[in-house]
Design the sequence.
């Protein structure tokens, strides 16, 4: 990855809606070079998707999120990969990480309500043969996600005009 | 025995208004043009402001946390008048690393309540009544009034957009009289964003030397340069002992409200400033000094670099924006201000700024408040978020377009 690509990534990470023209102006680079950088980043699957960070607690249609610690028995030859795949293919699973420490996988599950998440754990996740144990933690409140603070109390408090 | 009439004469006549009690110096100072415009802006809602002369970043958390910790640990006392020794040492290390300036922390550094106090102290200890103080303009709004308050006479030296608002040797030479004593410099410049390079400084040093001037060099924006590194006037050959370097934490470290600054220079000058400082403010607040110490740590310097990169991106955006609108804009190479020309609109700075506020809800500071050479320009701070800048540029563009159609 070159320096321009890194700078483009930084600017898109801040705001995915920025177009190539704006980014080119901000970086003092030719528009064509920025377009090419974005194209390459998308092609190489470094930019995977342009998504929106939503503060669901402000939406009536509130969702429930749980983090589940999963202990598993690795499979011969494939280690954790096969089980991880079986788990992450479920649409209600938002993220899966292989962890160091007391357990193996950290699974983030999102559901309409508590009951739905509980049903997923007991009906889908726990019955998988290789799964030894699960421990479910419901998220009560999100303060910060992906570097974005949800209840920002550090707004712009500057005077309208100052020396 | 004193007669009644004589006693009567000894008592001065009562003054007819409270302002008549004020000293002629205080009475003679006008309120700042920025303040006047501020009142106008405050009366409006939904305004995007480019009028702010301070970073839009909140002080980095680790710096704030250092101040909180100092309070928790009960550090609430006076510090030494010149500032905490460890802070003075950190300042000298930082100035040496960043700008090749070497000072003795024991005798050549004074920690002040903002850079503003340092400038005031320097003028107070240098000026005798009637001395002339040379000030390149457009410049920060305070230099001229505090010169007057110190009993001196401010002499403006005009700088021009065609020279990127650099101080030209010829203009400086033409302004010098036998009463000239002090030259105040502010590069990178508020409000123009102009900078001075080594080559730009060379002829100036010659004039300073020949005319035996003392220089107060306000380098508060020293960190904020884009593409070139700041050259401190004090680092020029032979200029160290003639120069009082004034700086602070407000701009580069996003610490305006902490009021923490410093002055460095010859021990005789700093010693004199220390005397006035100790009789007036005693010392800078201790919690601000602990925060400053943290800001100068390795971690603090990284945060500073991140902020500068962000200003640079916005600088490009704003300069291109003005040029696309059709307003001439020299390329600012320092600070966080663009200073576009509005000459082509036929309006004065004041008229343009006022109408821009009323018709487009964008606030910027009329250039004339910054002195000679400021008329016909607008100071626009780009220390504001990218979406706000983009929206402001769109509004200014529509406003300029609507004037052309009239």
Sequence:
């Amino acid at each position: 990855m070159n320096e321009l690509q890194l700078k483009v990534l930084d600017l898109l990470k801040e705001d995915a809606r920025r177009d190539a023209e704006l980014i080119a102006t901000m970086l003092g680079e030719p528009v064509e070079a920025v377009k090419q950088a974005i194209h390459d980043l998308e092609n190489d699957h470094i930019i995977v998707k342009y998504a929106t960070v939503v503060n669901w607690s402000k939406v009536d249609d509130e969702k429930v999120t749980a983090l589940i610690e999963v202990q598993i028995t690795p499979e011969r030859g494939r280690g954790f990969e096969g089980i991880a795949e079986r788990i992450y293919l479920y649409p209600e699973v938002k993220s899966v990480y292989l962890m160091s420490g007391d357990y193996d996988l950290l699974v983030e599950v999102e559901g309409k309500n508590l009951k739905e998440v509980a049903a997923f754990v007991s009906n889908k996740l726990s019955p998988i043969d290789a799964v030894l144990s699960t421990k479910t933690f419901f998220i009560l409140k999100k303060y910060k996600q992906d570097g974005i603070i949800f209840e920002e109390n550090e707004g712009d408090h500057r005077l309208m005009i100052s020396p | 025995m004193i007669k009644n009439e004589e006693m009567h004469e000894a008592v001065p006549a009562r003054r007819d208004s409270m302002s008549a009690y004020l000293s002629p110096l205080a009475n003679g100072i006008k309120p700042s043009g920025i303040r006047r415009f501020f009142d106008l802006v405050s009366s409006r809602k939904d305004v995007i402001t480019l009028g702010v002369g301070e970073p839009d970043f909140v002080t980095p958390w680790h710096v704030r946390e250092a101040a909180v910790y100092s309070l928790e640990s009960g550090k609430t006392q006076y510090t030494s008048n010149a500032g905490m020794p460890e802070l003075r040492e950190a300042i000298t290390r930082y100035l040496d690393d960043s700008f090749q300036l070497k000072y003795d922390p024991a005798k050549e550094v004074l920690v002040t309540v903002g850079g503003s106090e340092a400038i005031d102290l320097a003028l107070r200890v240098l000026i005798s009544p009637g001395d002339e103080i040379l000030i390149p303009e457009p410049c920060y709004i305070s230099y001229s009034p505090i010169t007057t308050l110190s009993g001196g006479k401010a002499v403006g030296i005009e700088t021009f957009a065609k020279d990127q608002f650099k101080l030209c040797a010829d203009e400086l030479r033409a302004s010098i009289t036998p009463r000239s004593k002090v030259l105040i410099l502010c590069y990178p410049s508020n409000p123009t964003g102009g900078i001075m390079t080594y080559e730009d400084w060379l002829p100036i040093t010659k004039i300073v030397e020949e005319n035996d001037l003392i220089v107060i060099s306000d380098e508060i924006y020293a960190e904020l340069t884009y593409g070139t590194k700041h050259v401190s006037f004090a680092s020029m050959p032979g200029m160290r002992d003639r120069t009082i370097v004034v700086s602070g934490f407000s701009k580069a470290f996003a610490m305006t409200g902490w009021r923490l600054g410093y002055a460095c220079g010859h021990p005789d000058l700093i010693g004199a400033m220390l005397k006035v400082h100790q009789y007036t403010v005693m010392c800078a607040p201790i919690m601000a000094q602990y925060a400053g110490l943290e800001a100068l740590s390795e971690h603090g310097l990284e945060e500073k670099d991140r902020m500068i990169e962000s200003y640079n991106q916005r600088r490009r955006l704003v300069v291109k924006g003005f040029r696309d609108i059709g307003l001439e804009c020299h390329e600012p190479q320092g600070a966080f201000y663009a200073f576009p020309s509005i000459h082509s609109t036929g309006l004065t700075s004041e008229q343009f700024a006022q109408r821009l506020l009323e018709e487009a809800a964008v606030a910027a500071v009329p250039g004339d408040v910054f002195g000679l050479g400021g008329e016909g320009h607008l100071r626009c701070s780009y220390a504001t978020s990218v979406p706000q800048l983009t929206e402001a540029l769109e509004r200014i563009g529509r406003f300029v377009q609507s004037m052309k159609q009239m």
